[in-house]
Predict the 3D structure of the following.
Amino acid sequence: MYQVRLTCSIKIRFLLLLASIFSFGDVFSQASVVSINHNADNQAQVTIVFNGAVTMFGPTDWTAQFNPGGIPVAVMNSVSVGNTAIVTLATAVGIGQTIQVGWAGGFGATAFGFINSVNNRTIVCTDFNFAALIGNTPPCAPVS
């Protein structure tokens, strides 16, 4: 009788151990970066896609700098939805310029050092509509 209880007790402990490993496995897994870009019209937002859900908000724990040069750029805010975080910078990033963004870690995401993001937004003629208010403007030809 004592051996039966001992065997059951060991089996129960083993099952509890397995259950705890599988239930806490997701807690310790962290999302990592899949892609990063900043092609928004306002040129001051960097979109970072992760391979899992993240819950980031606010400007803390983010770092950003222009590359080359390492000139720091202030991070004004961040917000996340699902597996995407949008980081708002204090300074717009020009077309063709590279910005580097880093994350200190936490909130469901693995920390990462500076990752390059190049602004590949295409200039289109409608970007110059404001010039028509000033006076006659020469015709616009898309730049490729």
